[in-house]
Amino acid sequence: xxxxxxxxxxxxxxxxxxxxxxxxxxxxxxxxxxxxxxxxxxxxxxxxxxxxxxxxxxxxxxxxxxxxxxxxxxxxxxxxxxxxxxxxxxxxxxxxxxxxxxxxxxxxxxxxxxxxxxxxxxxxxxxxxxxxxxxxxxxxxxxxxxxxxxxxxxxxxxxxxxxxxxxxxxxxxxxxxxxxxxxxxxxxxxxxxxxxxxxxxxxxxxxxxxxxxxxxxxxxxxxxxxxxxxxxxxxxxxxxxxxxxxxxxxxxxxxxxxxxxxxxxxxxxxxxxxxxxxxxxxxxxxxxxxxxxxxxxxxxxxxxxxxxxxxxxxxxxxxxxxxxxxxxxx
Length: 330
Ligand code: SAM
Ligand code: DTB
Ligand code: SF4
Hints:
By secondary structure, the chain is α/β, with parallel strands linked by helices. It is built from ten helices and ten strands.
């Protein structure tokens, strides 16, 4: 899509905008179903990169301790609990620049992916930069989606990160697309960018081919010790406008209301769901930061009559959709 078309949508009077995005949502998705995703940091801290928002960069004193890669056994145990709690997607994140074929840590991640895939959950990983070969290995191990965010506009990116470029991010996404994995790609708002920067980010996302399977929209969680630790919170109506514009521009993408929900009110989150968000991170912790508690989230979904996306069993009646990105067994 062209930037000027996205601007025209974004600037529509507020209630017309969310009315339209609600219609697009209803035309493409099962009404009132929200995908629950559990995140697990499988390798925490000590990252070589200098992303200005990140608590896991070794460049800043954030208080996050460096940890080694979790074993497949330990990861599988967390995934089993996540499935029991109702999550249908499990996303494993690693704090490093990227992964290389031949590194024993990569072999261990592949084994963890195979274990989680067997549980019947959507498997997402976010492991930084990837080459073509690594992407194919991950796909073959059972990864359904690769998360690699572009995070902001191409113009704003160099003021947030200096150790890799926006083009490096696009190159990895190209390798993911070529392998046949779905792309999960979005960004962060509240990093000192303008509203136009956010639309420029969305312009890039709308021109992906194939389109992203999911778009996480994170609100910056200011991390003590990082260069962005004093950024003010995002304006709720700007967030809702961005979600609505994303829903209209990418009707078939899951729009994930991601980091930063601890700073949103229940009413604010309700508006985000109305505007077309249909996925959340679920569980008390994101990677290193807090997320709303499971009990609070269950209560919120109940009050809004939203239902968690059903756990994929492969046993739903032929012809009906289970709503997950899994290859259905029926
Ligand atoms: N190292 C990998 C990478 O950079 O792609 C994967 C992990 S990284 C932490 C995944 C994403 O989390 C980032 O691209 C960013 O969008 C999001 N994120 C990280 N720290 C955040 C923060 N403080 N607030 C909001 N989102 C954040
Ligand atoms: C995404 O877009 N957001 C998630 C996930 N993909 C990997 C990560 C959010 C991290 C929030 C900060 C933290 O926990 O350190
Ligand atoms: Fe490292 Fe990813 Fe954090 Fe950047 S966002 S510092 S690459 S873990």
